[in-house]
């Protein structure tokens, strides 16, 4: 027993030493103890306190939500926006492992890890947003196949598990667990195919949630094609998010930025963005009409703003081939797409029901606690990504 215990301790200690060995990151210039890292930790600590308060005192005490605004910032931004930003994982993983497009392999790990954090934060947000957070596990054993909310919950759990599986090779490599690495490697294509199917369903099912409120949602956004709009816009967002993080990490972590990869992603943004723009304009013309943009007042401005920022301007920027080879232009266009799709999710989740809610005398603006929790979760994702970049082989091309 003593020998076995000593063996386990030595094995665990060796694995931990390998995990914390930062020899891989020395050439990346990653420093953990920085003012920015401390700021992220401070935000995370504040968010943790808010989460404890919310669990102890409830939603009414910690948020400004009410019966007419049951979903606020945590759902519209953290869940709808976070899941859309994670769409890059199934696109890049599918391109690398299913279509065998090897040139995108250098960004696959970072894309999948980013999606893992995005889905993890979405899961935390849903847990805190549900009235009875301590029974969030019930959908796993109490199935209701006729509920779109059940479908969303099931997709979230399954895809989060799939992303963890797809990210595990980095950890196994660092720990030296060759057998585990071999097992995961053999099943990776199957996991990716399963993940692609799940992500396609999940992105669209989030839009399907709003099909049940035709009388509450503004006609500028309500459509029976809302699930498809969510799916197409998430693809545009996913491609832009991958470009954004590739350029940003290249600058911050001092690793190679593959221009040919970014050009291909930018070309995808132009194609998907053009399709999304045609869908939005076509639905507007066939539905409330262009006059609704003027009659809608503030909502009309929000519709135009999300389209201009998230679709028209970035597509116009990237339509020119020379711009698709310019890092600064790609970076700006990517930021615009991300902001535009996030604004779309806020429009659908909050602003588009404002007319209905205001007629009942209700109003909503996120509380300080809602803003703190969201900021803390974003900080957690950034810090988690930084830790992985330091200790794991997140950018394989830097080894060449």
Provide an overview of this structure.
This protein is mainly alpha-helical and 400 residues long. The chain has one domain (65-362): Formate dehydrogenase/DMSO reductase fold (Up-down Bundle), CATH 1.20.1630. It is built from 15 helices and no strands. The chain has helices spanning 2-20, 35-57, 59-62, 73-85, 88-98, 108-129, 148-175, 178-208, 226-252, 259-286, 291-295, 298-319, 327-349, 354-359, 368-391. Helix 6 crosses helix 7 (148-175), helix 9 (226-252) runs antiparallel to helix 10 and helix 12 (298-319) packs antiparallel against helix 13.
Task: Give the gist of this structure.
This protein is mainly alpha-helical and 400 residues long.
Observed structural traits:
400 residues; Ni/Fe-hydrogenase cytochrome b subunit; transmembrane helix; NrfD-like; mainly alpha
């Amino acid at each position: 027993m003593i020998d076995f215990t000593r063996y386990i301790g030595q094995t665990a200690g060796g694995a931990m030493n390998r995990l914390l060995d930062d020899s891989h990151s020395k050439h990346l210039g990653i420093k953990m103890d920085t003012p920015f890292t401390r700021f992220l930790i401070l935000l995370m600590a504040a968010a943790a306190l808010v989460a404890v308060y919310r669990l102890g005192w409830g939603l009414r005490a910690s948020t400004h939500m009410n019966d007419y605004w049951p979903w606020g910032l945590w759902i519209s931004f953290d869940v709808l926006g976070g899941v859309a930003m994670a769409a890059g994982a199934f696109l890049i993983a599918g391109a690398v492992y299913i279509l065998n497009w090897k040139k995108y392999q250098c960004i696959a790990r970072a894309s999948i890890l980013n999606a893992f954090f995005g889905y993890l934060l979405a899961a935390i947000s849903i847990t805190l947003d549900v009235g009875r957070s301590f029974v969030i596990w019930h959908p796993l054993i109490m199935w209701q196949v006729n509920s779109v909310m059940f479908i969303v919950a099931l997709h979230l759990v399954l895809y989060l598990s799939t992303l963890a599986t797809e990210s595990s090779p980095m950890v196994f490599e660092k720990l030296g667990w060759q057998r585990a690495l071999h097992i995961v490697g053999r099943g990776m294509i199957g996991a990716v195919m399963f993940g692609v199917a799940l992500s396609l369903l999940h992105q669209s099912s989030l839009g399907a949630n709003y099909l049940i409120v035709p009388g509450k949602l503004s006609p500028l956004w309500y459509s029976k094609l809302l699930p498809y709009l969510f799916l197409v816009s998430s693809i545009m967002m996913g491609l832009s998010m991958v470009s954004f993080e590739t350029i940003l990490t290249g600058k911050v972590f001092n690793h190679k930025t593959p221009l040919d990869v970014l050009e291909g992603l930018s070309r995808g943004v132009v194609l998907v963005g053009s399709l999304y723009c045609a869908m939005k304009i076509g639905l507007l013309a066939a539905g409330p009409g262009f006059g609704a943009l003027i009659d809608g007042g503030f909502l009309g401005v929000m519709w135009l703003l999300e389209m201009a920022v998230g679709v028209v301007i970035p597509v116009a920027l990237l339509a020119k081939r020379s711009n698709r080879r310019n890092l600064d232009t790609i970076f700006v266009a990517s930021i615009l797409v991300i902001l535009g799709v996030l604004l779309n999710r806020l429009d659908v989740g909050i602003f588009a029901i404002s007319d209905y809610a205001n007629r009942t005398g209700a109003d909503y603006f996120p509380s300080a606690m809602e803003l703190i929790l969201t900021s803390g979760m974003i900080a957690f994702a950034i810090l988690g990504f930084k830790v992985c970049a330091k200790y794991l082989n997140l950018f394989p091309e830097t080894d060449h």
